[in-house]
Each structure stands twice: as structure tokens, then as C-alpha cells.
Design a protein that fits this description.
This protein is of the alpha+beta class and 220 residues long. Helix content is 36%, strand content 39%.
């Protein structure tokens, strides 16, 4: 319901923007014509305005009017796109999303994460730490190709005991021929809500909080 209201509000804002812009353009034209008429009425009879001057001023008005109309059209399209994105994002609520992040939630002995590699790696290591920053498990993912690599943690620590359910973070180290390569950590979380603001559409995902719609890699 909230998202429907937001979309409706965005549509109304776009219409208001167009109406307001049209009124501004009309006011600008009126002021210009009044000034031009006043200028012509008070011109020096011995040195009247020539056609080139009048034409030049009219051309300037046409240019300003055209720019104003273009700006209002772009603003309306932007508002419409935000409303459309909000409606599309609503369908994500209740689904698990993968986005940039280094957090993972251990539930019933299971947790999931992901890694994005910019190039192949012959060694990928994931280190999982608890809330206090203590390393509890190191996972060796072996050689991997370029792209997104998903992994699962069974909740067991390096010492062989079961870790307590809760929030954990992880880091990734990737190597190719002994040299470090770029690796981006990816988190999974449940989409709780969608919001729209002047900065764009954001999605609330589990313990990651508000994230930009453009950071979501996939929806499960």
C-alpha cells in the first residue's frame, strides 16, 4: 500500500512539474513580449530597431523556451522512471537478494555468501569472523573462473565445534599465479521493504539495511 502511494505521488509530482514549468515558460514569454513592445514604443525614431535586431531577440526567446521545455520533459521522464522502478522493486519483497556486502547470517547451521572475481583465480580463500572480529572458519574454494562464485558454510568452526547462530562477516582473498586479484564480497538477505526518495529507489535487505536498487545482483 505504501509503495502504491509513493508511485502515485511520484506521478502527481511529474504532472505538477510539467504544469509549473509550462506556467514559468508562459510567464517568461509574456515578460519578453512586454519588454519588446515597450522597447519598440520608446525607440528613437531617428535610429529605430532594424529587423535583424528584432529577429535576434525572438530567436533568443525561442532558444530559452526550447531549453525550458526540454528540462521539464527530462524531469517528468525521471519521475516516471522512479515510479516504474518502485513498482518493479515491490515484487522483490519476501525474496532473497544478493547484493554487495560482507555479512552473512548463520541459521540452523547454514549460511551463504558469494564472491565476484574480475578474473580467474587459482586460489580463493574465505575467512569468516564473528561479531567480535574473531576468525572462526576459513574456507578454501580452490580455483575459480571469472564471475560470481557462491559458497555455503555449514556452521562448523576450524576447531570442529558448531558456531552459534547469528550474524557473521567474511573477507575474501583471491590469487592468480601467486599474485593477488580483485574479489568483491556478496551477501544474501531477505528483502523487507522498498522505498523511494530523491536519490532513487532503495531496498531494505535483512541486516544490510538500505541498499541501492542498482547494487542488487540477483533475486532468488
Amino acid at each position: 500500500m505504501v509503495d502504491s502511494v509513493n508511485s502515485s505521488t511520484a506521478g502527481s509530482s511529474a504532472t505538477s512539474a510539467l504544469t509549473s514549468s509550462s506556467a514559468d515558460i508562459g510567464a517568461t514569454q509574456d515578460r519578453f513580449l512586454k519588454l519588446l513592445v515597450t522597447q519598440m514604443k520608446n525607440q528613437d525614431p531617428l535610429n529605430p530597431l532594424d529587423n535583424a535586431q528584432v529577429t535576434s531577440q525572438m530567436a533568443q526567446l525561442s532558444t530559452v523556451t526550447g531549453i525550458d521545455k526540454l528540462n521539464s520533459t527530462v524531469q517528468a521522464l525521471s519521475s516516471s522512471m522512479l515510479a516504474s522502478q518502485s513498482l518493479q522493486a515491490v515484487s522483490m519483497i519476501g525474496h532473497v537478494a544478493q547484493t554487495d556486502g560482507d555479512s552473512m547470517e548463520l541459521t540452523n547451521g547454514k549460511a551463504y555468501g558469494g564472491v565476484e572475481l574480475s578474473q580467474p583465480a587459482d586460489k580463493v580463500t574465505v575467512k569468516i569472523t564473528d561479531a567480535s572480529g574473531v576468525a572462526v572458519r576459513t574456507l578454501q574454494l580452490g580455483a575459480q573462473d571469472t564471475g560470481i562464485v557462491d559458497f555455503a558454510w555449514d556452521g562448523m568452526t576450524d576447531s570442529g565445534s558448531a558456531a552459534a547462530d547469528g550474524q557473521y562477516t567474511f573477507t575474501v582473498a583471491a590469487e592468480l599465479a601467486g599474485k593477488t586479484t580483485d574479489a568483491t564480497t556478496l551477501s544474501y538477505g531477505l528483502v523487507n521493504s522498498v522505498a523511494q526518495s530523491s536519490s532513487g529507489v532503495t531496498v531494505n535487505i535483512g541486516n544490510q539495511g538500505e541498499v541501492g536498487l542498482n547494487t542488487i545482483r540477483k533475486i532468488l
